[in-house]
Amino acid sequence: MVNTKGLIFDIQSFSVHDGPGCRTTVFMSGCPLSCRWCANPESWVKKPHIMFSELSCKYEKGCRICKDKCTKKGLSFDKENKPVLNFNICKYCTTFECAKACYQNALKVCSKEYSTEELMNILTRDSNNWRSGGGVTFSGGDPLSQSNFLLEILKKCKEKGIHTAIETTAYSKEEIFLDVMKHIDFAFIDIKHMDREKHKDKAGVYNDLIHSNITSLAKSSWKGRLVLRMPVIHGFNDNDDNILQLVKFMNFNGLVEINILPFHRLGESKWTQLGQSYDYSLEGDVSDSRLKEIQNMFLQNSIVCYIGHDTLF
User: Start and end of every 4Fe-4S ferredoxin-type domain (predicted)?
Assistant: First the structure.
């Protein structure tokens, strides 16, 4: 078998919210969606690219180590000698001289290439900490964006008896999606909005493929556990009509578990580090009382609903 390589932007050991038990979560680069509230916008691009964290930069203390390192004129300095990146130039960079020079990690490259062997070595090492019930979760981005690499890793995990989980948008060709799911024990699948136009407006793609893949999975012989998941965002998807449409969809497909996630801004600084504006700096918050109301709407329709990290594994 060819040892496929994949792009990963983070690997977190000792994760406890991404599936049963203690786990290693592998964050894979690439995502077909572009949600305007995304906590990991650095995951969208399926290639290495640059970020700049002003908070980590020591320019105020006179550090100029990155000066003159960029040969493409993508890096300049303002009147306070703070580095300024021209992301229209930086997005084409493949050598990252500035990041290699920065020992403060203020300039850093998102994504690192791993072979299946290298990743399996990490998972084998971490397995000593999982104890019973743990395993590996593939997240992102969306792992389906690198389906060949994902499938090769999943097959190796199954050979070693490793419990596998995935966090995905399910936005993929049905054949690929169902092939991947054959090797998955537990899945979180995101539902952003039931209306296709509103989904397209804020997530960048229509939701038809997502819904059809979930239905196909529900009708298949897959024996894993599926929990749908929805980030609850005020003014976008927290209205009664959307919730009831989701209830109807779940009942139609015989799905009985959903995890609703309170809106947060944990990824806002990443948007700035990527030179992008964040749409939800001043909006999106949902009250605890509204989350309870939404939870009750699901419970009243025989659907178990977890809020935040309360999912029972």
Answer: 81-112
Closest CA to 167 of 193, 136, 198: 136
**pLDDT band with cut points at 50, 70 and 90 for residue 2:** low
> What is the percent of the chain with per-residue pLDDT over 70, rounded to a whole number?
99
Q: What is the pLDDT of residues 80-129, one digit of tens each?
A: 999 999 999 999 999 999 999 999 999 999 999 999 999 999 999 999 99
Whichever domain contains 73, its CATH number is 3.30.70.20
Residue 3 pLDDT greater than 80, yes or no: no
Q: What is the mean pLDDT of residues 23-50?
A: 97
Task: Assess if residue 312 is contained within a domain.
Answer: no
Separation of alpha carbons 182 and 193, rounded Å: 26
**Gyration radius of the chain's alpha carbons:** 21
Closest CA to 41 of 159, 140, 167: 140
Q: For 202-208, which contacts have Cβ atoms below 8 Å and span 24 or more sequence positions?
A: 202/35, 202/36, 202/37, 202/236, 203/33, 203/34, 203/35, 203/36, 204/32, 204/33, 204/34, 204/35, 205/32, 205/33, 205/34, 205/171
Q: Output the CA angle 249-251-257, nearest 5 degrees.
A: 95
Q: Could you say which of 79, 110, 141 is where a domain stops?
A: 110
| Domain count across the chain | 2
Q: Which of 83-104 are b and which e, b meaning 16 or more Cβ less than 10 Å from the residue's Cβ? A: bebebeebeebeebbbbeebeb
Q: Which of 156, 145, 87 is nearest to 115 (CA)?
A: 156
